Amino acid sequence: MRRIKASSFHGNPQKYVAQLDITTEYAESLWGTHELSADDLGPWLTFAFTLQDGTLAALVREVHNAPNTGYILTAIGYKESRDVLAEFLAESGLTSEHVLHEGFD
Length: 105
Known about the structure:
Elements: E1 2-4, E2 14-20, H1 24-31, E3 35-39, E4 42-50, E5 56-62, E6 71-76, H2 81-92, E7 99-102
């Protein structure tokens, strides 16, 4: 897994993979300082990556009024969400205990 610029995290389809229970401080201890990205909903704390198989994945959290704890894992491409989650956990060193909720394909 390789960290990439948030601006490089784009494409279709983009899908929700999981909600992960990690803090910004913990994520920054693993991957360095977050970046800010923005969409129609507002600004997001962002950590973007390319997984070993080339899948683009990102951890994102709304800067203002995040509705849940932790970060959303989102991915770009047609790979099944469960496969992206398994690969992300294996490559990041996080465990399934960090997963609060899985998304749906």
